[in-house]
Amino acid sequence: MLAPQANRIEPALNRVPDVTVDFWLIKLMAVTMGETAADYLAVNLGLGLTVTSLIMAGVLVVALVLQFAQKRYVPWTYWLAVVLISVVGTLVTDNLVDNFGVRLETTTIAFSVVLAATFAVWYASERTLSIHTIFTTRREIFYWLAILFTFSLGTAAGDLVAERFDMGYLTTGLLFGGVIGLIALAYYLINLDGILAFWLAYILTRPLGASFGDLLSQPVEYGGLGFGTTFTSLAFLGCIVALVLYMTLRKKADELDEMLLDSD
Of 11, 115, 138, 256, whose CB neighbour count within 10 A is largest? Predict the structure, then answer.
Protein backbone atom coordinates (compact mmCIF):
# COMPACT_ATOMS: atom_id res chain seq x y z
CA MET A 1 0.00 0.00 0.00
CA LEU A 2 1.36 3.39 -0.96
CA ALA A 3 2.04 5.93 1.75
CA PRO A 4 -0.09 9.10 1.67
CA GLN A 5 1.37 11.84 -0.52
CA ALA A 6 1.94 14.10 2.49
CA ASN A 7 4.07 11.48 4.21
CA ARG A 8 6.42 10.79 1.29
CA ILE A 9 10.01 11.83 1.83
CA GLU A 10 11.40 13.81 -1.07
CA PRO A 11 14.93 12.83 -2.07
CA ALA A 12 17.66 15.35 -1.32
CA LEU A 13 18.59 17.38 -4.37
CA ASN A 14 22.10 18.35 -5.36
CA ARG A 15 22.56 22.11 -5.03
CA VAL A 16 25.23 22.57 -7.69
CA PRO A 17 25.16 21.80 -11.43
CA ASP A 18 26.43 18.77 -13.26
CA VAL A 19 29.90 19.15 -14.77
CA THR A 20 29.26 19.58 -18.49
CA VAL A 21 30.81 21.53 -21.36
CA ASP A 22 28.55 24.53 -20.71
CA PHE A 23 29.53 24.39 -17.02
CA TRP A 24 33.18 24.96 -17.96
CA LEU A 25 32.30 27.58 -20.56
CA ILE A 26 30.31 29.72 -18.16
CA LYS A 27 32.85 29.17 -15.39
CA LEU A 28 35.64 30.49 -17.61
CA MET A 29 33.52 33.49 -18.56
CA ALA A 30 32.65 34.13 -14.92
CA VAL A 31 36.26 34.16 -13.80
CA THR A 32 37.25 36.36 -16.73
CA MET A 33 34.49 38.81 -15.89
CA GLY A 34 35.44 38.67 -12.21
CA GLU A 35 38.90 39.96 -13.08
CA THR A 36 37.76 42.73 -15.41
CA ALA A 37 34.70 43.78 -13.38
CA ALA A 38 36.80 44.23 -10.24
CA ASP A 39 39.18 46.49 -12.18
CA TYR A 40 36.27 48.41 -13.74
CA LEU A 41 34.60 49.14 -10.40
CA ALA A 42 37.78 50.01 -8.53
CA VAL A 43 39.61 51.93 -11.26
CA ASN A 44 37.27 53.08 -14.02
CA LEU A 45 34.44 54.13 -11.70
CA GLY A 46 36.95 55.47 -9.22
CA LEU A 47 35.50 53.64 -6.22
CA GLY A 48 38.87 52.34 -5.07
CA LEU A 49 39.63 48.89 -3.75
CA THR A 50 38.25 49.38 -0.25
CA VAL A 51 34.84 50.76 -1.22
CA THR A 52 34.49 48.31 -4.11
CA SER A 53 35.34 45.41 -1.79
CA LEU A 54 32.77 46.45 0.81
CA ILE A 55 30.02 46.92 -1.77
CA MET A 56 30.68 43.66 -3.59
CA ALA A 57 31.02 41.71 -0.35
CA GLY A 58 27.58 42.97 0.68
CA VAL A 59 26.06 42.03 -2.68
CA LEU A 60 27.71 38.61 -2.47
CA VAL A 61 26.16 37.98 0.95
CA VAL A 62 22.71 38.70 -0.50
CA ALA A 63 23.38 36.39 -3.46
CA LEU A 64 24.54 33.57 -1.17
CA VAL A 65 21.44 33.97 1.01
CA LEU A 66 19.34 33.51 -2.14
CA GLN A 67 21.44 30.52 -3.19
CA PHE A 68 21.23 28.75 0.18
CA ALA A 69 17.47 29.34 0.30
CA GLN A 70 16.90 27.26 -2.85
CA LYS A 71 17.92 23.87 -1.38
CA ARG A 72 18.47 22.71 -4.97
CA TYR A 73 20.27 23.80 -8.12
CA VAL A 74 18.69 26.89 -9.67
CA PRO A 75 20.83 28.22 -12.54
CA TRP A 76 20.37 31.96 -12.07
CA THR A 77 21.02 32.01 -8.30
CA TYR A 78 23.97 29.63 -8.55
CA TRP A 79 25.76 31.47 -11.35
CA LEU A 80 25.00 34.86 -9.85
CA ALA A 81 26.82 33.67 -6.74
CA VAL A 82 29.73 32.35 -8.85
CA VAL A 83 30.15 35.64 -10.72
CA LEU A 84 30.04 37.68 -7.52
CA ILE A 85 32.36 35.39 -5.60
CA SER A 86 34.75 35.62 -8.55
CA VAL A 87 34.77 39.41 -8.21
CA VAL A 88 35.19 39.27 -4.43
CA GLY A 89 37.93 36.64 -4.65
CA THR A 90 39.84 38.92 -7.01
CA LEU A 91 39.35 41.88 -4.68
CA VAL A 92 40.61 39.93 -1.66
CA THR A 93 43.92 39.28 -3.40
CA ASP A 94 44.13 42.80 -4.84
CA ASN A 95 43.59 44.30 -1.38
CA LEU A 96 46.31 42.18 0.15
CA VAL A 97 48.78 43.07 -2.60
CA ASP A 98 47.93 46.71 -3.32
CA ASN A 99 46.64 48.00 0.03
CA PHE A 100 48.70 45.92 2.45
CA GLY A 101 51.82 45.33 0.40
CA VAL A 102 51.74 41.52 0.63
CA ARG A 103 53.91 39.94 -2.06
CA LEU A 104 52.26 37.81 -4.74
CA GLU A 105 54.50 34.89 -3.78
CA THR A 106 53.17 35.13 -0.23
CA THR A 107 49.51 35.37 -1.23
CA THR A 108 49.87 32.42 -3.61
CA ILE A 109 51.38 30.23 -0.90
CA ALA A 110 48.96 31.46 1.77
CA PHE A 111 45.83 30.80 -0.29
CA SER A 112 47.20 27.38 -1.30
CA VAL A 113 47.53 26.50 2.37
CA VAL A 114 44.09 27.90 3.26
CA LEU A 115 42.45 26.04 0.38
CA ALA A 116 44.19 22.79 1.33
CA ALA A 117 43.03 23.26 4.94
CA THR A 118 39.45 23.85 3.73
CA PHE A 119 39.54 20.60 1.75
CA ALA A 120 41.05 18.76 4.73
CA VAL A 121 38.34 19.92 7.14
CA TRP A 122 35.64 19.30 4.55
CA TYR A 123 36.84 15.73 3.99
CA ALA A 124 37.28 15.05 7.69
CA SER A 125 33.71 16.21 8.29
CA GLU A 126 31.93 14.69 5.28
CA ARG A 127 34.32 11.94 4.04
CA THR A 128 33.97 13.22 0.48
CA LEU A 129 34.83 16.26 -1.64
CA SER A 130 32.47 15.31 -4.45
CA ILE A 131 30.35 18.11 -5.88
CA HIS A 132 27.71 15.52 -6.80
CA THR A 133 26.71 15.19 -3.14
CA ILE A 134 26.11 18.80 -2.05
CA PHE A 135 22.87 17.86 -0.31
CA THR A 136 23.22 19.67 3.02
CA THR A 137 23.84 23.20 4.19
CA ARG A 138 27.13 22.21 5.83
CA ARG A 139 28.46 20.71 2.61
CA GLU A 140 27.35 23.77 0.69
CA ILE A 141 29.21 26.04 3.13
CA PHE A 142 32.40 24.03 2.55
CA TYR A 143 31.76 24.19 -1.21
CA TRP A 144 31.45 27.98 -1.36
CA LEU A 145 34.42 28.52 0.94
CA ALA A 146 36.51 26.36 -1.39
CA ILE A 147 35.23 28.30 -4.41
CA LEU A 148 36.17 31.64 -2.80
CA PHE A 149 39.69 30.48 -2.02
CA THR A 150 40.17 29.00 -5.51
CA PHE A 151 39.37 32.42 -6.97
CA SER A 152 41.72 34.26 -4.62
CA LEU A 153 44.46 31.71 -5.22
CA GLY A 154 43.96 31.80 -8.97
CA THR A 155 44.18 35.60 -9.03
CA ALA A 156 47.42 35.55 -7.05
CA ALA A 157 48.97 32.74 -9.10
CA GLY A 158 47.95 34.29 -12.42
CA ASP A 159 49.32 37.73 -11.51
CA LEU A 160 52.48 36.13 -10.13
CA VAL A 161 53.25 34.34 -13.39
CA ALA A 162 52.08 37.07 -15.77
CA GLU A 163 53.45 40.13 -13.97
CA ARG A 164 56.06 39.19 -11.38
CA PHE A 165 57.64 36.51 -13.60
CA ASP A 166 57.06 38.81 -16.60
CA MET A 167 55.62 36.07 -18.83
CA GLY A 168 52.80 38.24 -20.15
CA TYR A 169 49.08 37.56 -20.22
CA LEU A 170 48.93 35.44 -23.38
CA THR A 171 51.80 33.15 -22.40
CA THR A 172 50.39 32.79 -18.89
CA GLY A 173 46.96 31.88 -20.24
CA LEU A 174 48.44 29.31 -22.61
CA LEU A 175 50.56 27.88 -19.80
CA PHE A 176 47.61 27.31 -17.47
CA GLY A 177 45.48 26.09 -20.36
CA GLY A 178 48.17 23.54 -21.19
CA VAL A 179 48.25 22.28 -17.60
CA ILE A 180 44.46 21.89 -17.63
CA GLY A 181 44.80 19.92 -20.87
CA LEU A 182 47.30 17.59 -19.22
CA ILE A 183 44.91 17.05 -16.30
CA ALA A 184 42.13 16.17 -18.75
CA LEU A 185 44.40 13.69 -20.52
CA ALA A 186 45.37 12.13 -17.20
CA TYR A 187 41.70 11.75 -16.30
CA TYR A 188 40.71 10.11 -19.58
CA LEU A 189 43.86 8.10 -20.30
CA ILE A 190 45.26 6.99 -16.94
CA ASN A 191 42.13 7.22 -14.78
CA LEU A 192 43.17 10.14 -12.60
CA ASP A 193 40.69 10.39 -9.73
CA GLY A 194 37.67 12.38 -10.93
CA ILE A 195 37.30 14.50 -7.79
CA LEU A 196 40.99 15.41 -7.80
CA ALA A 197 40.90 16.18 -11.53
CA PHE A 198 37.84 18.40 -11.11
CA TRP A 199 39.27 20.51 -8.32
CA LEU A 200 42.66 20.88 -9.99
CA ALA A 201 40.98 22.05 -13.19
CA TYR A 202 38.63 24.32 -11.26
CA ILE A 203 41.54 26.01 -9.49
CA LEU A 204 43.51 26.48 -12.71
CA THR A 205 40.63 27.88 -14.75
CA ARG A 206 40.81 30.97 -12.53
CA PRO A 207 44.30 32.10 -13.61
CA LEU A 208 43.47 30.95 -17.16
CA GLY A 209 40.38 33.16 -17.32
CA ALA A 210 42.01 36.03 -15.46
CA SER A 211 44.99 36.03 -17.82
CA PHE A 212 42.81 36.24 -20.91
CA GLY A 213 40.63 38.85 -19.20
CA ASP A 214 43.69 41.00 -18.62
CA LEU A 215 44.92 40.29 -22.15
CA LEU A 216 41.67 41.65 -23.58
CA SER A 217 41.19 44.59 -21.22
CA GLN A 218 44.64 45.95 -20.42
CA PRO A 219 46.23 48.74 -22.54
CA VAL A 220 48.57 47.75 -25.34
CA GLU A 221 51.56 49.30 -23.55
CA TYR A 222 50.98 46.88 -20.65
CA GLY A 223 50.79 43.83 -22.88
CA GLY A 224 47.03 43.77 -23.45
CA LEU A 225 44.82 44.24 -26.50
CA GLY A 226 43.30 47.48 -25.23
CA PHE A 227 39.58 46.63 -25.33
CA GLY A 228 39.15 48.05 -21.85
CA THR A 229 37.39 46.70 -18.76
CA THR A 230 33.98 48.14 -19.69
CA PHE A 231 33.70 46.41 -23.07
CA THR A 232 35.26 43.17 -21.82
CA SER A 233 33.05 42.97 -18.73
CA LEU A 234 29.85 43.70 -20.67
CA ALA A 235 30.73 41.25 -23.43
CA PHE A 236 31.30 38.39 -21.01
CA LEU A 237 28.27 39.38 -18.94
CA GLY A 238 26.11 39.11 -22.06
CA CYS A 239 27.51 35.65 -22.81
CA ILE A 240 26.93 34.55 -19.21
CA VAL A 241 23.31 35.75 -19.24
CA ALA A 242 22.67 33.93 -22.52
CA LEU A 243 24.16 30.69 -21.19
CA VAL A 244 22.25 30.91 -17.90
CA LEU A 245 19.01 31.44 -19.85
CA TYR A 246 19.82 28.40 -21.97
CA MET A 247 20.58 26.33 -18.85
CA THR A 248 17.33 27.43 -17.22
CA LEU A 249 15.22 26.52 -20.24
CA ARG A 250 16.99 23.18 -20.63
CA LYS A 251 16.52 22.37 -16.94
CA LYS A 252 12.79 23.14 -17.16
CA ALA A 253 12.51 20.96 -20.25
CA ASP A 254 14.28 18.09 -18.46
CA GLU A 255 12.00 18.46 -15.43
CA LEU A 256 8.94 18.42 -17.70
CA ASP A 257 10.19 15.25 -19.39
CA GLU A 258 10.67 13.60 -15.98
CA MET A 259 7.13 14.57 -14.96
CA LEU A 260 5.72 13.10 -18.14
CA LEU A 261 7.66 9.87 -17.62
CA ASP A 262 6.47 9.60 -14.02
CA SER A 263 2.86 10.07 -15.11
CA ASP A 264 3.03 7.19 -17.64
Answer: 115
Mean pLDDT by runs of 10 across the 264 residues of the chain is 43 84 88 80 84 93 96 92 91 91 95 96 95 93 95 89 85 92 94 93 88 81 79 86 88 73 64
CA-closest candidate to residue 144, choices 56, 190, 82, 70: 82
Side-chain-facing half-sphere of 41: CA atoms under 13 Å: 19
Listing DSSP states for 38-95 in one string gives HHIIIIIS--HHHHHHHHHHHHHHHHHHHHHHHSS--HHHHHHHHHHHHHHHHHHHHI
The Cβ of residue 217 has, within 10 Å, a number of other Cβ atoms equal to 26
How buried is residue 157: exposed, middle or buried, by Cβ count under 10 Å (0-12/13-18/19+)? buried
What is the three-class DSSP state of 190?
coil
Counting Cα atoms < 13 Å in the Cβ hemisphere of 13 gives: 12
- Residue 263: predicted pLDDT: 65
